[in-house]
Amino acid sequence: MKQVIQTIAIPLFRNVTRFWFVITFLGQLAFAYYILMLYYRSTALGDFEKWNTASPHFYVQGDVVGNLIFGSHVALAAVITILGPLQLIPQIRNKMPRVHRISGRIYIFSAFLISAAGLYLTWKRGAIGGLFSAVGISINALIIIVCAFFAIRYAMQRNIKLHNQWAVHLLLAMSGVWLFRVFFMLWMLIHRAPVGFDPETFTGPFLNALAVFVYILPQAVVALYFKAKFSNSAYKKLAFSLLLFVITIGIAIGTMGAISGMWLPRI
Ligand code: HEM
Hints:
Blueprint: H1 2-44, H2 64-87, H3 90-95, H4 97-126, H5 131-156, H6 160-174, H7 176-191, H8 205-215, H9 217-230, H10 234-266
This protein binds protoporphyrin IX containing FE.
């Protein structure tokens, strides 16, 4: 039995990680498509009222600063959602290091800007959801800023091992907003009704738990990933593979729910 586990653990770990990556990349491309079709297209057509499709307070007449910041936020959202997963593809890193470096700089710069814009929108303009959501997404912004700082610092020091680790932490922090929508839709698909939250105020225990689950917990999963990757223990690799497999199935179903129930109907 021990022999069998040792034989399958490494390929399983590699393949489940690839499976997670492919599902995440496709899901993030779908989110980017939604952002392009809803926000980029309406902005290009001068139809700013269309920004309010998801919520009525995104385009506020007279609030020039707030509108500019929201516009920049969603403009950057599409950029980082496409660039993020591309940075992790080893073939691009190895065969086109210049592309990786340039797009990495754009990604890190955008990470700082999108977080700053997000913090402004949350605390100055007022976001949907209660105080818990506001604090949760602000912690996400701080995690992004810290990970972006260390990812660029270790890249400049040519410490590739630590740069890679911080870059993966950064990608997961930057995916928090996308994961929120994906797991929210998974929950809605399971319950077929607003369970654990008030759909009018968009507050409630489920949304509080979801904020912790998508904004903070992925950092622990990344830490576990590197522990399993660098460990000689086949059991650690196997256990992590099973955990990631279950999470990925949830992401795949939630993404399909988000595409059909949230993103396509709005564009
Ligand atoms: C880093 C990845 C992020 C992406 C890809 C992203 C994407 C988006 C998108 C697409 C919207 C428009 C709403 C929609 O159509 O679903 C939005 C709105 C918003 N974002 Fe972000 N965002 C990110 C990070 C953040 C952060 C870190 C914060 C807070 C610190 C934040 C705060 C907000 C707020 C307050 C709104 C207005 C919606 C509301 O009232 O809740 N975002 N974001």
